[in-house]
Amino acid sequence: xxxxxxxxxxxxxxxxxxxxxxxxxxxxxxxxxxxxxxxxxxxxxxxxxxxxxxxxxxxxxxxxxxxxxxxxxxxxxxxxxxxxxxxxxxxxxxxxxxxxxxxxxxxxxxxxxxxxxxxxxxxxxxxxxxxxxxxxxxxxxxxxxxxxxxxxxxxxxxxxxxxxxxxxxxxxxxxxxxxxxxxxxxxxxxxxxxxxxxxxxxxxxxxxxxxxxxxxxxxxxxxxxxxxxxxxxxxxxxxxxxxxxxxxxxxxxxxxxxxxxxxxxxxxxxxxxxxxxxxxxxxxxxxxxxxxxxxxxxxxxxxxxxxxxxxxxxxxxxxxxxxxxxxxxxxxxxxxxxxxxxxxxxxxxxxxxxxxxxxxxxxxxxxxxxxxxxxxxxxxxxxxxxxxxxxxxxxxxxxxxxxxxxxxxxxxxxxxxxxxxxxxxxxxxxxxxxxxxxxxxxxxxxxxxxxxxxxxxxxxxxxxxxxxxxxxxxxxxxxxxxxxxxxxxxxxxxxxxxxxxxxxxxxxxxxxxxxxxxxxxxxxxxxxxxxxxxxxxxxxxxxxxxxxxxxxxxxxxxxxxxxxxxxxxxxxxxxxxxxxxxxxxxxxxxxxxxxxxxxxxxxxxxxxxxxxxxxxxxxxxxxxxxxxxxxxxxxxxxxxxxxxxxxxxxxxxxxxxxxxxxxxxxxxxxxxxxxxxxxxxxxxxxxxxxxxxxxxxxxxxxxxxxxxxxxxxxxxxxxxxxxxxxxxxxxxxxxx
Length: 736
Ligand code: GLA
Prior knowledge:
Layout: H1 2-19, E1 27-32, E2 35-40, E3 48-54, H2 58-66, E4 73-74, E5 90-93, E6 103-112, E7 116-125, E8 130-139, E9 144-153, E10 159-172, E11 177-182, E12 190-195, E13 199-205, E14 218-222, E15 234-239, E16 245-251, E17 256-263, E18 270-272, E19 277-279, E20 283-288, H3 291-307, E21 318-320, H4 322-325, H5 331-343, E22 348-351, H6 384-393, E23 396-401, E24 405-407, H7 411-415, E25 436-438, H8 444-460, E26 464-469, H9 491-509, E27 514-517, E28 535-537, H10 544-554, E29 563-568, H11 581-588, E30 592-596, H12 604-626, E31 628-633, E32 641-647, E33 653-660, E34 682-688, E35 703-705, H13 706-711, E36 724-731
Parallel strand pairs: 21-22, 21-30, 22-23, 23-26, 26-27, 27-28, 28-29, 29-30
Antiparallel strand pairs: 1-2, 2-3, 3-4, 5-10, 6-7, 7-8, 8-9, 9-19, 9-20, 10-17, 10-18, 11-12, 11-14, 13-16, 14-15, 15-20, 16-17, 24-25, 31-32, 32-33, 33-36, 34-35, 34-36
Helix pairs in contact: 5-6, 8-9, 10-11
Bound molecules: alpha-D-galactopyranose.
């Protein structure tokens, strides 16, 4: 009898849940593409994180509650009255010295535009006039949700915030793995995959100025065990900030892992004056059921839709002068390089470091940064003849600058020694060249100076269509002559706010100029500044073999048209390795192709090959640069081969890249199993980048179904050491 009644009640509740999918009035869902995030925000109660994953509607959330599958823990945990764990997202010292905060929901606002929906939950301290607005923004056309906070001080006096994360999410524990990146100069973006173990995993960056050389502000979580490229529920997170950061995963034996990310609080206590606010940078999160690759594609789409400048644009093929001539820039040499790249089919020439300095000519890295006037000896006619020459050769012209730095040996430093960051009562510490110093971008006057430098260059020389914006200095001297004594702890943060402001101003004044973010190699790969930049320099390491690893990791979060990848000399300048020109091209061609070489040193045969490869790259460029990336065989898996592909939205066309990276007798080479194709379509193979006199491999012209290519795979002949192959796969359309 009792069972019967119970069954009736359960059925009634289920029917109600199914037919009346309304939320309780305190639950809110934010949707983005095919994912959702849900929180509970009862007025006067705590803001709780409920859910993040595949889309759910109101009914779905009710069902999740019934299944016991909601989290129900604080969505933005403050250091407060019930300190159960040391890991908190926010720690405030109120005006009277009280270190605790007790936040409850004040108001909730939902709004919507054509492109996103926005949920704002205003939290208020129970006693102090201190408010925290927690934002969740769901993009309609990408599977990415951004979360951040605005802290508002309405107390009588200043408050100090000691920790200020952007956001927090929970992951149900189980066999959860994390993928993150470490590195160094010329060895950036090295991938680590590890299971989450008890304890706190911290990825922290304190470089000060460039935050991507030693680690990345990004992580992926594989919820179903060891990460897989094309399977498994996976979450990705990227902190959109160019300065110091701290990403933490707390695994303390509880049911859920807690992930929090934000600006690193070390030496960065921030004072909020009465009536003022402090905004944290966005933490972008995504979910996919299609493994690491699915999350990567979500981030690529989101980036192209606005988080990199001109994100859907196809970029020019360029020659950059650095590894070709280093500081030995001169008019004749630059013109020769322009003529060479034009004759190989390139579209842009970039004059790198070494072109400036009057009183102190820039002949090496010990002087001249800040003196942005052409060296009268190297370039007697200034920049004008170079603009003219580029026009003559039918290509575009670009130039290198490093607007955030100076050298102690420079006219700029002589005039404005106080513009360099410097710790009080301490000797200056120098960076590159033993003289390099970072300018104080906290100071609006310095921001104006840097803006003028760039604006004058671009206005006076309208022929400059590309800027390589370099940043070769770490933040070594922690002190600002501009910030008041009691605001010195703002330097790490205000520097980057100054940088963002500067980049935005230049971008607004020169919307069409292509800008590369370079940070002494890959130091500026972050979504803090990328909205103003078109691309970044992936690494100063141009060795194609090592680049396979570096580019692999970088592609986890960044799209191919943002990744500058250059073909360099056949004895590589960083590693000394000798690789076939075809291999070097095939590796560089997976992103924004360029060259970083002295064409004068290339044989005619090599130049002919380069011209052919460039012409063929132009044909596949739209698909490579804006298509959907499927990583197939990882260089980290020790299989001796590497493979990746791009597939268009219609799944009619794909580009397949395959490389051999180790070589020995009886080497087992796996079959290459593709992904992202249409199983019902048939594809024809056509091989590209074949050196003259070489026959295409046995796959040329063959037709294979998407199903076989994905289920069973294809044998790709890779006989010789450092063999590589590039194929176009096109759907075979039935003709009668
Ligand atoms: C950095 C860049 C290089 C080059 C040099 C010039 O190292 O990453 O590509 O521009 O500076 O000094």
